[in-house]
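pasting for the record
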Amino acid sequence: MGRSSGTEAAEVLAKLAEYARRSEAQEERVPATLVKEEDWQGLAFVLDGVRLVAAMDELRELLPFPEGVTRVPGTQSWMLGLANIRGELLPIVDLQQFIGGPPVVINERCRVLVIRNRGASTGLLVPTVIGMRHLPLERQIPNAEFEGLVGPYVYDVFQQEDEVWPVFSMAALANDERFLSAAA
């Protein structure tokens, strides 16, 4: 028994050594990632034709527009209603309409960004989500002023090559008195 166990162990070790050798050989062919640990990470989306990013730590979840959103009487037009998401009632706000733009057209591209506000979650409907962006911190322009409908919610901007990425502050939105009162 000891002899066959020793043979099996030697075979396993030889196999592991072979895997390690092949893995190291592959490593040379795989390019190093372009994402650095010190990069700022955000989710890019479009709002009233403007491409924006929101910090990943300000977002809880990303959802497709839920079926069965129930309108709440006596609320602003931008307050679309409540949706049951995995047993939790989630208020759904048309973010584009809230900032003064046209209502979001509900289609397969629109998404709901879920934020946490004062212990409760809120879903923000946006027309399009572009995806994750990793932006170098050295390209950040802090305390930038941005004009237009999104201006009051932009606190930083990233300049990357010929692209400008305004940072939409979910915290600034959550502290807006108008946002806190959806009653009509």
